[in-house]
Amino acid sequence: MRETLAEAVALPSVLATMVHSLIEAWPAPVYTQPVVTTRFLGTRTTYVCDPRLIHNLLVDQAGSLERERFMLRALTPALGAGILTADGAHWREQRRTAAPMFRPDRVRSFVPAMAEAARATRARWLADGSPGTVRDILPEMMRTTFDVIVATMVSGDSRLEVGPFGRAIDTYLGQTGWTIALAMLNMPGWTPHPGRQAGAEAARYLRRSVAETVARRTARGEPGSDLLGLLLQARDPETGQPLSDESIIDNLLTFVAAGHETTALALTWTLRMLAEHPEIENRVLAELASVEGDRVADPEAVDGLTYTRQVVMEVMRLYPPAPLIVRRATADIGLGDRTIRSGESVHVPVYALHRHDMLWDAPQRFDPDRFSPEAVAARSRYAYLPFGAGPRVCIGMGLALTECLVILATLLPAFRFVPAKREMPAAQFRVTLRPKGGMGMKIVARHGR
Ligand code: HEM
């Protein structure tokens, strides 16, 4: 009784912290203990940071888990029931139908389109007559990754406009802090909150733009060879069935939303971290010299960028674009010496896992050598989860990593990035991990280019 009263008194401040950034509401022991269980307003939540238990949970017991309701409440108004948000048979059908679209050979075939989008950004920045002005790098990177998505997914038929689309995603994600916090506190779905109306309008706009794009393509009668074409032609390998019209819209929007913002965040944090660490930047530049000129569009040359890849991996350790993996148990499951009861939430707090005292030496230090082949082989694969693990591992992982390398290889040799402020922006949870207040930097052309 007393406990409940204390919780009720604490509620407004807990709500405020959750809305501001869910990560700040995590209990401090998630950074030092393997498993932490909390109870708030009668709800038990378990946080798992032990790689062995994470493997057991996300791989061995995946069949007894589903998407957590508060994440669904945040995402389904925009994404419907696509691969990211569906569960059970509907998820399985869509996942196995779409899987061939993200095979390594497909991803490699997209490299020239990625290089073209990156070159467009370089040309835009070079043409800009005000090199000393501070710009927020996140929208710049969002524009570049959006161009990649349009070129690889809906080339020729896009009804997706980068400006309004990006703003709609911002508006939508901006209010998810409220949706998630209210859902976690068991408040009903209709509870009013700031940004709710604008979020609903943004979701409608996003779905309408994607539906129009699909309609244009279908009207042409020729599916095309980009990702939309592949989606339209995809057949379930078990049943031979195509995806429904609704499913095509859900998934195209899921790929656009899940794919471009996360990748833009990885790039944004990378540019900032390189600006902080000139000796690492120099090593990257030396490697990138091997792909200067047209070789950046050559998939084999991109495969050879091993140190640059290590840098991106290390950046995603400190700033994982998707900082939380969360599931709901659909049956009682054993996890080490604990039981997670049916209906309870299990969190893999990726941001904390990647900075965990027991797993990383000097966790706050930026050190891309942590991702040398030897260091990776000596560590559990489940200590590092920027793309998740198990059957629901990110379907676009290969695409995202290749895209990061192509964009860095095009932009970094041409520009220096000078942070507008000395302090690193705080990392804020908005489903993804965003730099609070943006990532202001000056973009300065390097000499002789
Ligand atoms: C750096 C960029 C990216 C990061 C960090 C990232 C991260 C993640 C993570 C952590 C998950 C697993 C979520 C969970 O288990 O609950 C996931 C799932 C997913 N991602 Fe990505 N992602 C990235 C890029 C992409 C791209 C480029 C696409 C597609 C074009 C994509 C599409 C998806 C989809 C569809 C899922 C759901 C998979 C399923 O549930 O079966 N992601 N992503």
- Head-to-tail CA distance between termini: 69 Å
* Corresponding CATH superfamily of the domain at 74-321 and 381-445: Cytochrome P450
- Indicate the CATH architecture of the domain at 74-321 and 381-445: Orthogonal Bundle
Q: Could you tell me the radius of gyration in angstroms?
A: 22 Å
Could you characterize what this model shows?
The chain has 449 residues and is of the alpha+beta class. It has a domain at 74-321 and 381-445: Cytochrome p450 (Orthogonal Bundle), CATH 1.10.630. It has 18 helices and twelve strands. It has helices spanning 2-20, 51-60, 69-79, 88-98, 104-109, 111-127, 137-153, 162-174, 176-184, 196-220, 227-233, 245-276, 278-288, 299-303, 306-318, 350-353, 373-377, 397-411; strands at 35-40, 43-48, 65-67, 134-136, 325-329, 333-335, 338-340, 345-348, 415-419, 427-430, 432-435, 440-445. It has a five-stranded mixed sheet with strand order 1-2-8-5-3. Helix 7 (137-153) packs antiparallel against helix 12 (245-276). 43% of the residues are buried. The mean pLDDT is 89. Protoporphyrin IX containing FE binds at residues 83-84, 95, 254-255, 258-259, 262-263, 266, 321-322, 325, 386-388, 392, 394-396, 399-400. Keywords: Heme, Iron, Membrane, Metal-binding, Monooxygenase, Oxidoreductase, Transmembrane, Transmembrane helix. It comes from Methylobacterium persicinum. The chain crosses the membrane at residues 395-415. This is Cytochrome P450. Belongs to the cytochrome P450 family.
